[in-house]
Write a structure and sequence with these properties.
Chain lengths: 114, 116
């Protein structure tokens, strides 16, 4: 079974500042990793995913994440945030075999202040 | 990306009644659909996985007789909350996955269920 821990429940940042949202996972098998964004009362939108290959993954809206197998981490970063980035962010993991159902972290509320 | 449409987006029902939520894949065939429940300010909890034409697989602790899932076609899955009670009030989200060794899961917009 897999599990995901998002270390920060809330992250306040000033506009145009950089941000890092932390995610650690545990699994006994190889995994796929994802970051999703959720705006209020909406479903989830995929920001980026790691399946294999390069450990630095670039996604939409200027976000990127780096897969670190030795530290079992998949932290999300953006060099300069905008007000519109205010949302809930979820890290998720699925096994790379079998059912591929997603296990989500607890979420991180990113608030961008002007 | 592909589109998953979930309907209704909001529903209010009386305690004891049943409510059906639909999840449709609009431009692809969804061999697998997932139903999640999200409590306020919390993460998504997987309720069940459904494969087209077969019975859904429920996660531990989810009452299959209360949350009926039907995946009768490759583009439609439904979740029926039977004999709803106020504690069933929540945000329900579906996701759908296409065929292939691995493909991305696309999410619906969610349904806010309020039982009064």
């Amino acid at each position: 079974a897999q599990s995901v821990t998002q270390l920060d429940s809330q992250v306040p940042v000033f506009e145009e500042a950089p941000v890092e949202l932390r995610c650690n996972y545990s699994s006994s098998v190889s995994v796929y990793l994802f970051w999703y964004v959720q705006y209020p009362n909406q479903g989830l939108q995929l920001l980026l995913k790691y399946l294999s290959g390069s450990t630095l993954v670039k996604g939409i809206n200027g976000f990127e994440a780096e897969f670190n197998k030795s530290q079992t981490s998949f932290h999300l970063r953006k060099p300069s945030v905008h007000i519109s980035d205010t949302a809930e962010y979820f890290c998720a993991v699925s096994d790379s075999q079998g059912a591929q159902k997603l296990v989500f972290g607890q979420g991180t509320r990113l608030t961008i202040n002007p | 990306g592909a589109v998953v449409s979930q309907h209704p987006s909001r529903v209010i029902c009386k305690s004891g009644t049943s409510v059906k939520i639909e999840c449709r894949s609009l431009d692809f065939q969804a061999t697998t659909m997932f139903w999640y429940r999200q409590f306020p300010k919390q993460s998504l909890m997987l309720m069940a996985t459904s494969n087209e034409g077969s019975k859904a697989t429920y996660e531990q602790g989810v009452e299959k007789d209360k949350f009926l899932i039907n995946h009768a076609s490759l583009t439609l899955s439904t979740l029926t909350v039977t004999s709803a009670h106020p504690e069933d009030s929540s945000f329900y989200i579906c996701s759908a996955r296409d065929t292939g060794p691995y493909t991305e899961a696309f999410f619906g917009q969610g349904t806010r269920l309020t039982v009064v």
